[in-house]
Each structure stands twice: as structure tokens, then as C-alpha cells.
Amino acid sequence: CRLDLSQTDRYYESVYNPCEISRVYISNQCVSSATPTEEMNGAGNLMDFLDEPFPDVSTYEDFHTIDWLREKSRDTDRHRKITSKSKESIWELIKSLLDAWSGWVVMLLIGLLSGTLAGVIDLAVDWMTDLKEGVCLSAFWYSHEQCCWTSNETTFDDRDKCPQWQKWAELMTGHAEGAGAYVLNYFLYILWALLFSFLAVSLVRVFAPYACGSGIPEIKTILSGFIIRGYLGKWTLLIKTVTLVLAVSSGLSLGKEGPLVHVACCCGNLFCSLFSKYSKNEGKRREVLSAAAAAGVSVAFGAPIGGVLFSLEEVSYYFPLKTLWRSFFAALVAAFTLRSINPFGNSRLVLFYVEYHTPWYMAELVPFILLGVFGGLWGTLFIRANIAWCRRRKTTQLGKYPVLEVIAVTGITAVLAYPNPYTRRSTSELISELFNDCGALESSQLCDYINNPNMSRPVDDIPDRPAGPGVYNALWQLALALIFKIVITIFTFGMKIPSGLFIPSMAVGAIAGRIVGIAVEQMAYHHHDWIIFKNWCRPGADCVTPGLYAMVGAAACLGGVTRMTVSLVVIMFELTGGLEYIVPLMAAAVTSKWVADAFGKEGIYESHIQLNGYPYLDVRDEFTHRTLATDVMRPRRNDPPLAVLTQDTTTVEDVETLIKDTDYNGFPVVVSRESERLIGFVQRRDLTLAIKNARQKQDGVVSSSVVYFTEDAPQLPASNPQPLKLRRILNLSPFTVTDHTPMETVVDIFRKLGLRQCLVTRSGYDRSVSQIYLEILEIQVRRRFPPPSSLKELEGILTEEWLQIPLETIHKLYESIPQRIEAVIAAKSRRTPYEIIFC
């Protein structure tokens, strides 16, 4: 019987007849030679079609799962061959060294290309986001900030205003203020947003449908061993890069950080095709993709170490130690490349890098934990609402009009976002402002405090002050922005455009955290004599940092949505550049995960994997069903028998008919129909390709040609059709379990070994059909039972275990038993029939 998890529908097969592994081969390298006699009877031209490999053999079809053990074995054989050849000559030694260094070369190329693309995306998004509001007259390719940097007329008080930068209303009408200018700027803002989103969804729909979404659920599935052809292709890389810029610039509530992981993995897949070591081995390719995912997070957040941990914790399925080092190297190169481009002009890798100078106090753990609770609740709400909306999109007419949906959501977002300055700007700029501590040089509304004219302190140690009218106005605007972001993100994530979730989730948490931080700060200022503030917040001291609360809230909400913990804390630590704030971040991240896990174990990416029906066995899932392997095997007792091949009696026509009539991914190979001893397992794709190539290259192969999976060439009459030997595509050591193996163990085996299918044998000691035959024979001899005259009589003497064997098969054996016994007695007349049985 066979358990097959290689397709989305997960076909299961089994045989009633118990199976037995007749031989176990350490190596599949079998060599046979033809004898002169074989030349005469037509067997001399027998070909084994893996002696001369043909294209696509041992590869996988689209939407199938790879066999990790098979790929590991193939790489071991390849490495052993290279090592043995390296001793033959200097050239072979150089080739072996190049092969050893090819992995590091691929990591270098991935880091360089990922960092370059991330820098270009950051620059393009910065420019196109500002293009919705105005244009730089001196150089139209400059963003607002870059335009004013180059101006000599910019003052400190009006550093966001300069003559070279003009809004569209001022450029068209000459008036920068007034209701007419506001309405015109409002209209053009919506128009630009609609244009960007329309271009994004159109390019995705026409050229690369796989370029939509975040990409992380599919990356997780691919890294677990699933094949999705084209998802990491060149067109996907190109279109994803272009449309990511358009989607983020349109002002939709999405980010570029998640899609950057997809872009980096596309780069990794591109460079894998340059080296046969990776292009011909799907297992090795996935090691490279794991490292590429780390590089993607590295350039997304400027966090090389966090990127490695993200790949290890969140997306990778198989992560050996050497992949850890190579992932770190790729993330380092990518971060260095992005730093060299310096897209934000601040010598930082991300826009919202901050540094705090005020320590946190133990009493602040209470609001930090409350932010963690909020993050967990928000994560649960978002996952359930977003999955419900995406399921509705897939099952209703809404899914047939992706362009219209994107246009509608973009229009609603632009109309509601423009009046509020905190939703009008890009989400990265919003997070940057919320993270920032209020220094003496800040001009934001959030820093509109009432200053003491007698204050004389260093710039970095400004004491807590009473909030001014600008702060209270900003709080109302932030509250409205919080509600807007919570609602609109639910409908945005999952549309047919590139859309990341990291930045919107961080924005929700940062807004909530900043509001809580300002509230705690004002309580500490006005009620510093309370017992909770008395010990650590003296009058005139800088006690509370609202920006830190924003960062903790961002970590909590991102953790609640994605269920990340360790990698999330390290990413946020690398954003702040200080070890002092790790404990608040850890407290918030762990609390958000606990709260979210109380309502459901799946994060947003696992939920989308389940929604899309991808075959993904999550190592964190617990198998709670008390079932055995025999309970899930197919076919059942009343189902058609298992489709098997025999080792030396199946014809080419039989094989082609079997392939045509079934959709299984492989077939067990047995000795014969009567003695179903298991020889091995052959993949459907390899079988199809082998027969196709044999018809093209080997003369005499016809439909009546016998397919041989045996090691020795057969001796056939010259009049017989040319046989076909396919032993080299046969897996001689398939993984097996007994029918009484708990399904919890079977699932664990599939998870940890990466199996594609598992063959199931009956009873714990691999009972074969012939063993049960002998037991029946023993009963007959000892009790002097005559051979049963009918199937009904046979059924009466069989136990329940023997009833699993087709009665017709046993009856046929009974008919041949007397002749076999007489032959043995004639040869060994001194032994009784009972003794012969146990011989």
C-alpha cells in the first residue's frame, strides 16, 4: 500500500496483499553485460536508459512535491564522483574546487542583485509617492526631500518647502493655497493613485500572474518541496519589481518588505540556473532559496541577522548548518550593497531607523504587555477577517474582476486618506515619524509641547513637558488613521497586485503605541507624585519615550499577524541599534503570540496556504487524531485493486494503459501478481519519459515489448519483440511502514524526512503473501484438511487477517500445492511434509 502526499489532492493508495521488500540496495549502480547467446536471441541491444541520461529524467511535474531523500542521494553520488575524479588530474582538481566554491559565488550574486533591486525600488517609490502631490522643477526625477536638499533657498523653519518643489495646483494655476488649490491637488492625488494601481494590476494580469500578493506563503510551500513552475521565473522577477513600485506608490495600505523576499528568491532561482549543481537538484536549489529569503529580509529592514533568523524561523523547511552560514553571507552582501546605494540619504538601510537615549523603567512593562495584548487581538481579527474576505473573493463573482477590485479599493483608499496628513503620506514615512523621539529640532505636530523658557538641558535629554494643542490634534488624527488602517488593510491584502503585510501591520501597532506612549508621558508629567511614577519619574526628568511605545506596538502587531518571535525581536533590535530595548520588545512579542495563539495557531501565511490548498505539512502542527496507517490507505476493501507493475511480465502497452487510466504519481513494482513481493517503486514521470525516449532511440520497441525491471538481461527467442530494461529508474529502497503505524508517526516521517510517498506493509514483521500461504498450508497438513473445493469453503477456514488477500489468489495457489509437495518429497524423501513446510 502507498501513502502519496505528492499532489494537492493527496492521493492515497494501498494493496490488500501484504508487501515485502525482497532486497535492499545500497547503490543503484548496476552493471550488466550481454553474452553471445543474448546477442543471438535479441537481448544484446537491450538498453538501460539511465546509462545515457535523457532530458527531464528524475525531474518533477508542475504542482508536485519533490522527494528530499532522492535529491539528497543524488547529490551525495555527484559529490562522491567529483571527489574521486579530483585525484586523477589537476584539471579535475580545479573543477572540484570550483564546484565547492559555486555555492558562495551564488550567494554573492544574490546579495549584489537583491541589494541593487531593493535600492532601485526604494528610490523609485520615494519619487513616485511624491509625484502624486507635486514635481521638482529643477529635476523632475528628484523626490520632494531631494529637491529641497539641492536648493539654496531652503530655511530651517520651512525645510519642507522650497521654490524648486511645487504642488500640482501651484504649477497649473499659480495658487498654492485656497479651496480651489486643495480640491485640484485632491483630485490629482486620486488620479495618480488610480493610474499607478491600474498599471500594476494590468501588468500582473497580462505578463506575470504569479507576481501578485506577498509571495511568502508560496515561498514557504516551495521551500517545503512543492513545485510551482514560473513562480520564481525571470518574468515574475521583472514584473514584480516594476509593479511593486507602482502598488506602493499608489498609496494602498501595503508594503514592499514581504514582496522583497519573493524578489530575492527570484534572484536566487535565476542564478541557480547557471550552475548544474543547483539547477539539476531541487533539494540543493531550496538551500539557495532559503539563503535568498534571508537576503530579502536583510534589505527590507536593514537587518542581516534578523533576515537569517526569519528564514530559519518562518519560511525554511530544511535548513542545514552550511545554509546558515551562506544565508548570513548573502544577507551581509545584500545589506552592504543597499548601504552603498544609500537610497534614503541618511546612511541607513531603512527609512525608520531610530536611536533612543532614554532608558526604560520596570513599571513600563505594564503598558508594553498591554500593547502585546492589543497586537495579539489585532492579529486574530485581521487573519479571520482577511481570510473570510479572500474566501469570498475566490467563491463569488468578485474574483472574476481583479482589475475592478483594485481600482475600487484604490479609489476608496485615496479619497479617505488624503484629508488626514498621517494617512496621506507613505506608510514608511508615517512609521518613521511615529518612531522618532521628539528632539529640539523636530517640527512635527507630535512634538508640539509647551516648552519651559528657563530650560537649559542637552538636546538629547529634553524633560517631559505638557502637551500642546498640536499634540492633541495629532492624537485625534492618529485615532482616525488607526481605524482607517485596520479596516482598509483587511480588504487590500490578497488583491492581484504585489502587497506586503509587514509595513501595514507595523503602522497599526506604531499608531496605537504612540497614542499609549503620549498618554503615559502626560500621566507621568501631571501625576508624578503617584506611587507608580514616584520612584522613577522625578519632575523635570525625561521619563517616557513615546517613540519607544510606537516601536513596541509595531512589534506586537507584526508578531500577532505573523506569529514571529525571535526573528521579530532581532529585526526590531537592529532597527534601534541598541540592546537596551530588547526586553520590552520580547515582552510584547511573546504576549502577542500567546494571545493570538489562544484563538488559533495559524499565522496569516499559514492561513493563506490552507486557503489556497497548498500541500504544506507545518512542523508546528499537532496531529491529534488517533488513527493508524491502515485507516487512511487507499484503495479500501470495496475499491478497485492497487495499480502495480510486475518486474518481468508487464508490456509497454500495459504500462501506457496504466498511465492513461490512472493519475497516480508512481507505481509499486512487484515480483508477480501471485507473489506480490515488493521490488521497488517507479515514478510516473520517469516511466513516461523512459518509454518515450526508448521509442525514439531504440529500434524494435513496440507496444508488445516486455518491460523489465530485473537486474539481469532476459534470454528471449529472436522472434520476440525487443524488450525494454528500465531498472535504473526503479527506486530499490522505498520507505515503508507497517499498517499498524500510528498516523502521528507517519506524518512526522513525512515532515522530517521530506518523503514523497510511503509504502505500507501489513503486520509488524513484513508478512508476505507467501508467508501466509505457508501458514494456510501448515493448517491443511497438520489437520489433514483436503484442499477446499470452493471459495466459500476456503473463506470459512481463513482468519480475519488472511481475508485481506483476494480469495481467488489463494485458491490458485492451493491448486499447485500438491505438485510442489510431491516434488519436494521426491527430492527429500526422509522428511515429512510438515518438516518441509518449515524448511
TrEMBL record:
Keyword set, alphabetical order: Antiport, ATP-binding, CBS domain, Chloride, Endosome, Ion transport, Membrane, Nucleotide-binding, Repeat, Transmembrane, Transmembrane helix, Transport
Gene Ontology MF annotations: antiporter activity; ATP binding; nucleic acid binding; voltage-gated chloride channel activity
Family of the protein in this entry: Belongs to the chloride channel (TC 2.A.49) family.
Full protein name: Chloride channel protein
Record carries keyword Repeat: yes
CDD domains per UniProt: CBS_pair_voltage-gated_CLC_euk_bac (cd04591), ClC_3_like (cd03684)
Ligase keyword on record: no
Occurrences of domain CBS (ranges): 633-697
Organism: Sphaeramia orbicularis
Annotated SUPFAM superfamilies: CBS-domain pair, Clc chloride channel
